[in-house]
Design brief:
By secondary structure, this protein is of the alpha/beta class. The chain has two domains: about 220 residues, Response regulator (Rossmann fold, 3-Layer(aba) Sandwich); about 130 residues, Rossmann fold (3-Layer(aba) Sandwich), CATH 3.40.50. Helices cover about 40% and strands about 15% of the residues. The chain contains 14 helices and 13 strands. Strand 11 and strand 12 form a beta hairpin. Helix 3 packs across helix 13 and helix 9 crosses helix 10. The longest helix has 19 residues. The radius of gyration is 21 Å and the shape is globular. It starts with 7 loop residues before the first helix and ends with a strand.
Amino acid sequence: MKYPQLTRLAVALALGGTALLAGANKNEIRLGNTVPYSGPASFYGCVGQSTSAYFAKVNDEGGINGRKVTVLSLDDALQPPKTVEQVRKLVEQEEVDAIVNQVGTATASSVRQYLNQKGVPQLFVQSGSNNFQQPKAFRFSTSALMSYEHEAKVYGQVVARDKPAAKVGILYQNDDYGKDYLRGLKAGLGKPLAAEITYEQTDPTMDSQIVALKAAGVDVVVLAAYSKQVSQSLRKMNELGWKPQVWLSHVSAQVHPTLSIVGLDNVVGVMTAAVVKDPTDPSWHNDPDYKAWLAWMKKYQPKGDTENSCNVSVYATSAAIAQVLKLAGNDLSREGILKAALQLKDYAAPMLLPGITMTMTADNYNLFRKIQLMRFDGKRWVPQGKPVGE
């Protein structure tokens, strides 16, 4: 139901409630996001759950500058038409101050122009797409993840250096997310790919795509895919007895469940990049960051998976959102929130890897200027050298 002629105060009174009234008095900060709680990408529902849980902790600690934070998280099943509907509801009916931790390249892209026209911050989209790193064209839209294109470019550079004669193939999701990896890999490799294979989110398996890559004689495979498709791809490689060198998109490099579904012994040597500490790695279990994170999980997400790194990365990003809101102070206008986001400089969010920080500037929305290459040894992700990047 919409109330186009009413102020937020009047709407609150009409509804007989207090939440909107509190927002009108600026005793409340209202954040919204859309997340796939249902559908084939429901694995990423953890993003919405972790965001809500983080700000529950913030509220228990007194809120942001004395204001409580309300998180309104809606299901879009990772379907752009549904995203449009839900975001319009959040902006026009719920009057959120910002959209944060939104999941999905295609889904967040479907509302990017709308949010920028409305002047609503679309902060820390859970995507590394260039779509959210265009400060001149879309100044209100920023990314929470390392740049997909930059990540893939680094992969290509490493392969070109270490395996110059290798035939390289890529399996990528047929959307902006996957195409960023394709573009970056080509740039880093500096030579044509042996195979470029796509998939759709609705494809039931990756069997035919993996068979096609093997038939192309590929030695190195980049999987620019989501968790489900990565697990399916690795499982099929194992069934075929095919052992190319594999590089994974960092968004799908969870030891549990992505790799454990395949069998950890079957994925030794797989490569990726990371910016956060892996909660399954025992070398972090005496780390103060990890202990604080685990205590948060047990109190605010008792049913959450403590082995799922999604809960770590969103914890770090949510801490950055809280930092932005603190920097905004009393200027919680949408413009004020964006201005505060651009003040982040070398912010060491909890659970980031050593040497990794977050930085935002008015002309560069790539949050992570350095990334850490990792190799899976059958038990954990092992850092390979020091962080690399810009």
